[in-house]
Specification:
3 domains; Znf_RING/FYVE/PHD; three-stranded antiparallel beta sheet; 370 residues; Glucose Oxidase, domain 1; zinc-finger; alpha+beta; Herpes Virus-1; membrane
Amino acid sequence: LAHCQRTCFIFIFIFFYFLFFYFFFYVPVLEHVYGPRLGEAGVFGRSSALKRVAGVLAPPEGRAQSACQANTSFGDPPAGPWLALIARGGCTFTQKIRVAVGKGASGVIIYNFPGTGSQVFPMSHQAFEGVVVLMIGNLKGVEMLHLIQKGVRVTVLVDVGRRHIIWMNHYFVSFAIVTTATLAYFIFYHIWRLWVARIQSRRRQRLTTHLKQAFGQLQLRVLKEGDAELGASGDSCVVCFELYKPDDTVRILTCKHLFHKDCIDPWILAHGTCPMCKCDILKALGVQVDVEDGAESLQVLMSSELSAALSPGAEGTRTDLGACSMTDPTLEDFVVCSLHERCSPSVFSMQPHWVSPFFSWFIVVNLKLD
């Protein structure tokens, strides 16, 4: 359930992120590059009057379209408002605007150099009160010039649209790239953590099943009066160093050595070998342990179900085996234990692990039993 909640949160975040990206970046860029659907996108000059203006379009007469000379003629001015169509180059923007305004133009449209396509930029020029100054792309400017030269009367309408701020676009592109990369990293990290957790869970379940079967092969025996282990020369458990007593439950290993059941089970999980002859008990029982990279020791997760299966009647046994059950951790205590690193019988660590899309939390608790 927690994984589903985190996954839903991530998809909702992605949805709103791309919604924000579309409306605040993608749509304005389309409008800037391709222009409005019914017209051509232009950029006002930095000192231009920002207002709506309409009128007949008039280019300079003659072959020179730069309008750099004071005697430049725009033909017979129409009765109403008109706008000058001037090519970029030859002189400053301010000089071109001054010539057109001197001839009575209500606005000045300057189209960019040949070969620049639809590229535009905000021009720097001197302010002229009430005069609209804007730049359009070369393609649209040349197209309108050819229409006028063919005798077509061209009327233009200049309206104030979205303000084009280059630095904002640049910063927003950088922000979008960094944010997208970060979001992609966390998504892939989350997927990777889920995959690793699933693999580890399957490995633990498989190993737990093998351990159940393996421990089921080891013989259990309850000591009674008259057994050789209880005589005057009887042995003691080498794990807890206590003498065997009647009704003690012992486990007999494959090497025929026996120990208190509650002592030897955690020992085998911790060391995998017999305390006396160092026989590899787990290997003898057919338990195969896969260790990734050969460096990390595999951590075996012993569930309460396995503990109950391996320790029937454990509560009653611990009452009789006071020394063993109080000085050594039982199967319930060995929640996490290494099969390749020696663990102290009096120290164990518990490491619960939660998978998070942003962080991995590790809690290690060390407990010492008196």
